[in-house]
From TrEMBL:
This is Aminomethyltransferase family protein. Pfam families: GCV_T, GCV_T_C. Residues 275-335 form the Aminomethyltransferase C-terminal domain. It comes from Saccharothrix hoggarensis. Residues 29-256 form the GCVT N-terminal domain. InterPro entries: GcvT/YgfZ/DmdA, GcvT/YgfZ_C, GcvT_C, GCVT_N, TrmE/GcvT-like. Transmembrane segments: none annotated.
Length: 357
């Protein structure tokens, strides 16, 4: 399967810097990280999410199939709702974190940015006797996002003011400039978030109108904002950690009677994870993944992922620690730097205190 490239590259700002996000070739940043991060946290940012594959699952057994492959219960997901879930393999390891959009006939499954090829391969491998059809709509539709404490204002000026105040995880069929689009209120940064699924041949026009109202933000700023509110990213499951070790159990419904990976998840819950993932901040430099975490010279964990947090003004990372050290407020050593473990969210989103008016 060819690497995904953005159909909007021709209308991205001059000087856009590109790079890899799993299978996708994405815009990492359009201008500067500071500017794009500030837009997400203080104003409104527009996101090119074309690195996410959108898969249509239809057919007589579509509902039952998705109920089997998703770790959360979607039996009663209506065409006006969407929800986030993990897709796991039989070992309970993460295949992808997805957003499931309810439809009248089947559902749409939105992959993480760059995670679609692996997701599609997994779904097709577990179809079995189910009467389902899995169609990759990536060549036909483009997904755009809006995030920020004033993203609702952009929605009002760009699409429809009534859509700005939709309940979280709502989905609406609507139109933009006479074109049928699918609109959802959902996001990953802790700020107000919205997504628009638009026909590919209209995506550039919608992008051009959106950047008149909001600042383009690339994958680098998006992933930083996600980390600051403890949204999982692909960096966390790249090492094969299970759900409990990652701390992503909120994306799994263990009361659900059956789903792929359930036995492994229950075994992990019963046995308890020997390591847990904890946020930390401190030091002057960003530690590399794999950097040892120590207490009094004894290694107690390892860094999974770290970046410089603009919101904290300091390095921010995730570490896998011995389970008895999975707590906030502990002083640890990462490499040669003293750090402190944190409780999430590590940065408080402005949207939490900003009303939609």
């Amino acid at each position: 399967m060819d690497s995904l490239t953005s159909p909007l590259a021709d209308v991205h700002p001059e000087g856009t810097e590109y790079g890899a996000a799993q299978e996708a070739h994405v815009a990492l940043r359009y201008t500067t990280l500071d500017e794009e991060y500030t837009a997400i946290r203080e104003r409104a940012a527009v996101l090119d999410l074309s690195g996410s594959r959108v898969l249509e699952v239809s057919g007589a057994d579509a509902g039952g199939f998705l109920q089997r492959v998703l770790a959360r219960d979607v039996e009663y997901l209506t065409s006006e709702r969407c929800m986030t879930s993990l897709v796991l393999d039989e070992q309970g390891l993460v295949v992808d974190q997805v957003v499931v959009w309810g439809r009248e006939d089947g559902m749409l499954v939105e992959s993480s940015v760059g995670g679609g090829a692996r997701l599609l391969e997994h779904l097709r491998s577990v179809v079995g006797d189910d009467r389902v059809e899995i169609t990759d709509l990536t060549g036909e539709r483009v997904l755009l996002g809006l995030e920020g404490p004033y993203a609702w204002g952009v929605v009002g000026r760009l699409v429809d003011g009534e859509l700005a105040a939709l309940p979280f995880e709502s989905v609406v069929d609507t139109t933009w400039d006479g074109v049928d689009v699918l609109f959802a209120r959902t996001g990953v940064t802790g700020e107000y978030g919205y997504k628009v699924l638009v026909p590919r041949d209209q995506a550039a026009a919608l992008w051009a109108k959106a950047v008149e109202q909001a600042t383009p933000a690339g994958q680098e700023a998006l992933e930083l904002a996600m980390l600051e509110v403890r949204q999982p990213t692909h960096h966390e499951h790249a090492d094969g950690a299970d759900v409990l070790t990652m701390g992503a159990n909120w994306l799994v419904d263990i009361t659900k009677e059956s789903f792929i990976g359930r036995d492994a998840v229950l075994a992990a819950f019963s046995g308890g994870a020997t390591r847990r993932t904890v946020g930390f901040s401190g030091g002057d430099t960003v530690p590399a993944a794999g950097t040892p975490v120590t207490v009094d010279g004894e290694q107690v964990g390892v860094v999974v992922h770290a970046v410089h947090s603009i919101g904290l003004g300091a390095p921010l990372g995730l570490a896998r620690l011995d389970a008895d050290l999975a707590a906030a407020g502990l002083r640890l050593t990462v490499g040669d730097a003293d750090v402190t473990t944190l409780t999430s969210p590590y940065v408080t989103p402005k949207s939490w205190s900003t009303p939609i008016i």
